[in-house]
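Shift notes (night). Ran Lrp/AsnC family transcriptional regulator while the centrifuge was going.
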Amino acid sequence: MSHGTTDIDEDDRKILREVQRDCTRSLDRIAERVGLSRTTVWNRMQKLVANGTIIRQAAIVDARKVGLKQTFFVTISTSRHDIEWLEVFRSAVVEMPEIIEAHRLAGTTDYLLKVQVTSTEAFDNFYKALVSRVSIFDVSSSLSMEELKHSLDLPL
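Came back to this:
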């Protein structure tokens, strides 16, 4: 995945706003909403996919409706910053499906994980599995009591 900026214009932004909301809309509907021809929208979308601006198109699943009712945020501080530790940690993050987001942070905390599980017992099992795989200096977990906002739409 490329993290460089890609030149996009206002028409690209209009298309991206539409497909962020619903990528199942027809090209005709998107073209109508953004004021461009169907062919132009198709060509621009192909460019946005090819240059990595559109990473993938997927269904957004309600975690609660599939039994994943508990969201935990885990903060991790490590005393090790060598490549070996990072590779072990990165492997654990990638291989543990309960981790739905992972961020390396600036500041006093090194990493923040968002973990989605069925229950606090499932989280405890996840936690034990994580600390058995990775040597962690300090770890703290917080249960989300209420989600106030969840958006996948970037502010374009």
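The chain has a mean pLDDT of 94. The helical segments are 10-21, 27-34, 38-50, 83-95, 120-133.
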